[in-house]
Structure formats: structure tokens, C-alpha cells
Amino acid sequence: MVRFENVGLRYGLGPEVLRDLTFRVEPHSFQFLTGPSGAGKTSLLRLLFLSIKPTRGLITQFGHDVATLGKDALATLRRRIGIVFQDFRLLDHMTTYENVALPFRVMGRHEDSYRDEVIELLNWVGLGERMWALPPVLSGGEKQRAAIARAVIARPQLLLADEPTGNVDPSLAQRLLRLFIELNKSGTSVIIATHDIALMDQYDARRLVLHDGRLHVYD
Amino acid sequence: MMDMPKSDLTAPTRMTGGLRPRNETPMIPKNSISGRALVAVVAIMTFLASLTTGAVMLVRASASEWQSDVAREVTIQVRPAPGRDLDAATATAAGIARAFPGIAEVRPYSKEESARLLEPWLGTGLTLDELPVPRLIVAKLAPDAAPDLAQLRKIVGEQVPGASLDDHRGWIDRMGTMAATAVAAGIGILVLMFAATMLSVAFATRGAMAANRPVIEVLHFVGAKDGYIAGLFQRHFLLLGLKGGVLGGGAALLLFAFAGLFSGWFVGNASVSQATALFGSFSIGTTGYISVGSQIVLIAVVTAWTSRQTVNRTLETID
Known about the structure:
The structure holds 2 protein chains of 2 kinds.
Chain A: E1 2-10, E2 16-25, E3 30-34, H1 41-48, E4 56-61, E5 64-65, H2 71-78, E6 81-84, H3 96-107, H4 115-124, H5 140-152, E7 158-162, H6 170-185, E8 189-193, H7 197-201, E9 206-211, E10 214-218
Parallel strand pairs in A: 3-8, 3-9, 6-7, 7-8
Antiparallel strand pairs in A: 1-2, 1-4, 4-5, 9-10
Chain B: H1 35-71, E1 73-78, H2 86-99, E2 103-108, H3 111-122, E3 135-141, H4 149-159, E4 163-166, H5 169-211, H6 213-221, H7 226-265, H8 270-279, H9 285-318
Antiparallel strand pairs in B: 1-3, 1-4, 2-3
Helix pairs in contact in B: 1-5, 1-7, 1-9, 2-4, 5-9, 7-9
């Protein structure tokens, strides 16, 4: 599904923040991406999400060499990836329902074809009664669940989550982890970037550890 | 692997008020775009552009009318000289003109008529016998005829001593130059106004994009293509452009309609008569109204296009 070979990344003329990354993400797999602050987790997620291109090396996603793809093709590929940000990135002027339905709206699908699906997912993540609420009035946990719902509504093949439990209490963190595990069971490959060791200890999964720009894989 | 109790995350499926949710909110928040200011700018620009277009059309139509009137006439002037029978020379010249193919009507001015022509300069009660005043013959060209005026000039010059033919070419050329200059100046002003409108729209779009950068980023994350995002802004700015264009162009159309009515009400008034002589009837006619209407559409399209180009350029820098 995802293949990195000798990937390096530097910003401008600065030092390499990621060096010689070589790994694969298999379909239906679950992995934690961890490492100390500043190790390059977010940069690696951005590479995985096709939001930046590497300065060297080869990245193939879903069978495509991303270096050869144009902007529109990258956007199409991005629809197969869901991403959850630590700061949620919900659109404050749109209701929870509209935020979650956004990927379908962008695809140009008719609302009748996905409305029930969005409502069902909102109910599933416990936001059934908050679908008319605007993000500013949602709690941190509700925002996090809305962001996750938006990331998974279009059934992505790969789900990336950047510190998804960084802003929530341990109990909610556990519930969110269960949600990710359920999504993985339903066929989505999951990569959770976190430095929450307690969270990782709750689930036996592959660990990708970034240290000083290099990646160590613990299967 | 841990079991996930669904009840943890599942809420009752009841929906508020039994209503079904809908996508009602525009993706780009309306209040994030300085819409009113831009509508005002576009309205003012369209108003000025429409006035310019109307004024150019009035001048051009009047000049064309004058030119066609003057171009259908030639004047033969018979100059007096000692021992010359001016009446006989005038009659000969008129006879030559009448016989010339393509001349429809020939009218020699009598002494009295010539005196009246000089009244504004020399006053009334003038006795022309005391002055060497040339005599004029006005010859009107037949409709759709193109007489050989050079030949006529030659014959008149040869057969009537002291006679010359003036086809007003110099005056017509000056009129043509003046009308062309007015049109060129008008087009120059229109180009500047469109440029100013495009710059205003570009600044407004950049401002809107800066204010909506988080929205644009999220749209990218959920797989929106650049064309889709540009389309959102383009639609918004097309509406703003149309609104401004209709306001400005509509005001200009009202002004032209009012000016037409106004000049109709005050027929006979000296200043209105002067203005009418210069600009014609003050009516821009159907073509004028269509031009201003097209300008409204054009300015809306230019607004939308400029916005799309600006969005595309800005998106290049975001990725």
C-alpha cells in the first residue's frame, strides 16, 4: 500500500529532518509512529499524506510513484487517505454534520446518496445529537470524534492520526483507541503518531520509532 | 486485541426536532470576503465605464452624422475680380454643376443670402455691392452617387475664372480625427478602469484567500482539487461582480434615460440646444443600452476570471 525507499527530507537549505527511511505499510495493518518531539513525526505524516514531496528517495502509494503525479492526481489519491489532526482542523462555520460530510461534498456526490451514511457514522461516534452544533461549542472530545468521523467517512484505505489523544483525558483516549482499532478491523490501515507510551501499551501493534531523523521498525 | 464496547461511543439515533440535516453552509464563509467594499468598487467602476462608453457613442454618432451631412455637399465659390460679371460667372458655374453626373441639386446663393451669411461678422444693413464678396453655390450629391469631384473641380476652374470647388475634405478629416481621438481616449479610459477593477478584485481575492487559508487547507486534506477550490471563489466573485455591475451599470442606464427625457422636456432652451447640437439627441439608443448591458456581464466575468487566476496562483504557493 505504502512503500518508502531511502527517503530523505529537508526543508529549504536546512539539515535533513528525515534520513534514509525505508519501510512499508501493508493493507489492513495497524502501527504506531512514535519518537521524541522534533524527531520528524509530523514531517513523515505529511509525506504519507502527500502534502509534501521528499527531497530524495522513492515513495509509492497505492501503486503510484508520487513523484510522477500531478496536483490533481495527488488530490485524487488523497481521497483514499484519511487524516486526523491534533488540532482537529474542523471548519468553525459549518455544522458537525457538514464537517463530516465534507469529503463527499468535495467529491461532488449528491447529498441524498450519503446523508444516511453520515448520520449513521455520527451516531456511531456518539455525536448523533450534536450534528447541528458548530465546532466552537463542541467539547475537545467531541471535536476529536468529529475530526475522526470526517477522516473515515469516505472509507479511506489508510488512516493517519497525529497525536489523536493529545488533547483528551485518559478515559477518552482509550475510547478513541478502540475506535481506531474498530476501523482497522473493518479494513483500514492505521498509522497513529503519538508519544503517549501508555496509549501504545494498551494495544499490541507494530511500532515505527523515529529518532534523530531515522526510522526503526519494531514488528 | 481489545474488544470495543460500542455503547461507549454510540448515542441514541434520535435527531433534533425530527429534521434531517443538510449541507446549507457555503464552504467559503460569506463574511470572510470583503464583499460590500468590492461591490461598491465594481459598481463605481461599471458606472464610470458605462458613462465613458455612452459619451464615446454619443460623440461618435454625432461626428458621423455631421460628417455624412457635410460629405453629401460641395461648395463652389466664385471670387469677384475687377471687370468680372459675378452673376454670369455664378450662373455658368451652377450650369456646369447641374450638368455634371451625380449632382442632384444645385443652389446658387443670392446676394441677399450671402449677406445673411456674413451678418454675424459684419452686421445687418450691409450693401454687398460695396464689398468684393464671393458668391457661393451649394451642390448636393445624389444619394449613393460618387461623382468625380476632381473632374468637376477641373472643369469649373477652367471654364469659370475665379471659381473653385471645396468638397470640405479638410474639415471632414479633422472631424474624423477628433471622433477617432475621442473613441481612442474612451477606450483608454475603459482599459484603465478594467485594469483597476481587476487589481481591486485580485487584492480582494488575496485577502479572502488569506482569511480562508484554514478552509482551503482542509479542502485540500479532504481531496479537493485546485479547480474545485478555485471554482468556489470564482462563483462567489462572479456574484459580487454581477451585483456591482448591475448597480453601477443600472445607475448609468438610468442617468442616460433621464438625460434623454430631460433634453426632450427642454427643447428650445438655448443651452440644451447647444448640447443637442454637439451630442445629438442625448439618447444612446438600443446599441448603447446593449453595450452597457454587455459591460455589466463583462465586468462580472472579468471579476470572476481575475479571482480564479488569483486563486490558482495562490494555490501554487500553498502546495
